[in-house]
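Lecture 7 notes: from sequence to structure.

We start with a single chain of 554 residues. Read the sequence below before looking at the structure.
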Amino acid sequence: MSTPKHNAAIWYASDGYDPENKGINGRRVAGASFLKGFAEHAAVDEFVSLSETPRGAKAFEAQMQAFGVSKPVRGSVFFNARKIAPCDVLYYPAPNFTTELWRRQSLGNTTYSICGITHTTATSAVMQGAVDLRLGPQMPWDAVICTSRAVLASQEAQQDMVDDYLRERFGSVPARPIMPVIPLGVTPEDYAHQPAAREKFRQRMNFTSKDIVISTLSRLTPYGKFDPYPLFLAIEDASAKLPKGLKLHFIACGIYSDKHSREIFETGAAKLMPSVSYTHLDGASKEARTEALSGADIFTFPIDNIQETFGLAPLEAMAAGLPQITTDWDGMRDTVSEDVGIRVPTRSLPAGHGAIDAWGYHAKRLSYAQYGSNISAMTEVDLPALTEAIVTLASDPAKRKAMGKAGLKRVNEFFSWKVIIPQYQELWGELSSIRSMAAETADKRHLHDNPTAPSPMKLFAGYPSETLPRGIAACVATGRTPDLEEIFTLRKYNNLKQPFEKIETLRLVLDSVTAADKRGVVATDVARMLSFNPMTVERCYAWLLKYGYIARLG
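Now the structure, written as tokens:
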């Protein structure tokens, strides 16, 4: 039976879940895949979102309906975060959710748990976010899902450094978030092998059974994904070692990040593997992605860049029944087992190296591209092993078939969303239990202010002559005053897009004060009559006083 304790409100902004319209990258592809998997496999009674605006809530509802959801879908906005209840976990699609911690702080830290997830962790924003998380109001009932054991190790290493600092500076450290290892998932059926697409593609390319096609599905960025030159060198060397009659071809399906990336790939391919054809397919095209997976014989993902933390593409290739040649790199150490592919060793320098690059990136002397490229340049991909892996699979169709079959079995057993989503829900239930026990003893009488976004009325309380009292009493003013709507329009408040208050609200409040005539009325009474928040009426009173529509009593 489903329970709110095993459900989570989804922090929703289309930038995190809409690769088709916002641009294809790993984070958005993973987000869209998760949302689809969640819609199909979550054991929940309703789907809940938390968004910046009602527009975001509507976008979430539309996306869930597109996935065929028939259960209720509802949305809350940031200013009413409590309304995610009865859900008491907020799922945030990134690891640096300190802003959300401070937002929760003003509601009470036991109001709900927050569960983030790692994607790219090498950017300065995410690394700073990891520090901010330890300095912010993070609680033991919060979590950061790590998508691989390697990512968990990197997160723990950074938290160790932060905690060393905190311990030396303040003598103690707060409890860390829970950091379980739960991999990303896919919907295997979306990437299933398509014989007709394979036949059509290979006919168009004039490939025969003697043509061995190696493909990759990746962002084609040599400084942000992988350096293709070791791969090109290995493919060329392997080509010379294959049995007579076999010929290698390489398919790069992806999006070139820029002209520089295109030149690196295409010029390098022509120069470094002249015996092998190079074909680029547009990664933005679903048809092209299908051709790259169904039309190939071997899939490769030779990552050597710290930008990558998991690697969804190998899972997609497993679902298509392709054998793998990947590097032995972070997430692929968990996903690509020996029965589904070959992992090529990688080697980098010890900890004393890289400090100059870290400081250069921190000081903005190096861009993120330069930073990642520098670390990649100091990472060895074992060329003889890579060459041998290509020769082994290209020469042995039976081995390719066996690995492809094992890969399909593995992705369905361990990496399908129908297996992963229950792990998420189990974690959310655990967070709810921890938080519930803490909430029983929490002091609910005092809610802490948010020092990162303090009320300007508190921060700048010393600026005005005096502060208006709570529960302002006022009556309608005498004298000639311009029409309310006229002066609001003349002042062009709506041109600022988010005025301090709506003209309709101001009109209702003024009419209530006018009805009271000279007797006057207290703001809290108007709030009760109109079913408004008292602070809304007080905001209106302040503006109406400013323009002489009402006058204070007492």
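The first strand starts at residue 9 and ends at 11. Keep this in mind for problem set 3.
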